[in-house]
Amino acid sequence: MSIEGDAAPPVTAYTQVTDLSSDAHACLTFGDPGDLLDLTAAFVRDGLASGFRVVVLSDSPQLAAAKLGWREIAAESAVAAGQMVMVASQDGLVGPQGFSAGQAMSWLRDQLADSRRHGYAGMRVALDMSWALRPMTGIEELPVLEEEIAAAVSAGMSVLCGYDRERFDPVTLALIAPFHSHAVAAATYYDDPVLRICRQYVPPGVRLAGEMDFLASEALALALGEAIRIDGDITINMASLSFIDASSIRMITDAAASLDPSRTMVLRCPPAIEARFSQLGAVRLRQVRLVGVDEG
Amino acid sequence: MKGNDRRPDPASPGDGAVLADAEAGSADREARPALDQAFDSGTLYALRAAVQAHAIQAGLPESRSDDLVIAVHELAANAVRHGAGAGRLRMWERDGALYCQVDDSGSPASGGDAGPVRPDGNVADRWPFLQGHGLWLVRLVADQISVFSGPDGTCATVVFSCGQDPSGSAPDLKRRP
Lengths: 296, 177
Prior knowledge:
CATH superfamily of the largest domain in chain A: P-loop containing nucleotide triphosphate hydrolases
Oligomer: heterodimer
CATH topology of the largest domain in chain A: Rossmann fold
Mean pLDDT of chain A: 91
CATH architecture of chain B: 2-Layer Sandwich
Strand order of the largest sheet of chain B: 1-2-3-5-4
Radius of gyration of chain A: 20 Å
Number of helices of chain B: 4
CATH superfamily of chain B: Histidine kinase-like ATPase, C-terminal domain
Radius of gyration of chain B: 15 Å
């Protein structure tokens, strides 16, 4: 479409999590834990839909399953059916004596072998790397692990490594980044210390965190515009929003009103925000469904 | 202690032009604003944070302090977007109620385009008071509201009772229709 054609440089070097290939070794960097969950959810959802075995490693598998649950990932039933494996970090990449790249790779290879034995065409592994922030012996081998994963992914296995860019030091991130085939991050429309507006992948829509007012209306308009162009229902996740002004509420409800009546805009909000939407008449729109939440 | 403008100002609080019914009694003259803060588009966030902190300190329940914050924000946002582009908030407590006055008079951009002045000198109806949902929301959440517009700008005051009953006794402003 562009007049310049292929001369135009890409806006960002990031790959959409939904575009990852089946042999990707992707580095997901995030500043907000919500991003990790959301992008992991998209990675898991697409893996399950493709009929792959999906392995999710995190510090708390129970909590992760619950949080994937509200993102419309039926983690418990997928685990019961054997298609999904939820593992605690200390039962996977980290051993009782600390960390070693060899031992971690051996666990990963076992997972792949098990997945093949059960007839899965491929395997997707989502690794929450926050375990590597804890002091432990052998952690200097982290880049070795990433290098070995890079060599292993061609064998029908894709891996998403989640690194908190606020908590990992830049040197570590610079060391491990080159071993990844893709960089993944949430599509962000606005990001400053007060407000963050980003795409939500699962369920699709927009996520607002912080304090939303008219000063960021252009970014909100862009985010809503992209969200309503996709098919089906959309969710505006405001669980981590502590303030929203009337003009932003108006913009969201106008976007909802523009939807075909067969579509729904789900507004997930804490009680105080929910009350504002009610006060401004959002509930009268048949496209709007207000859902109260107590946590992000 | 703070970067706020805390210069004594004889016109506030209890400005007779604004609080038409709250003519300056002797008690009023002794009142000092708990908060006196200039704002523009770049400092609305700080304004909200300051208002929230003072509202909680004054004993407003959390849901009401949220209401107070949105009311002040919407008034300030109107000054920023449709008025002088900047203004000043003064907040004080009196007779069990919190008063918040948002004023963009005297700011450089105010004045010029005041429109038809009604016989009582009030051009409030020209201020974007009927536009949008912001000021409608202010009217909804505040116990009382008063707006006065003149050639120099607009001054709006909202009152929130600190008592249990939001429709309760205290404030001495008439609710405008």
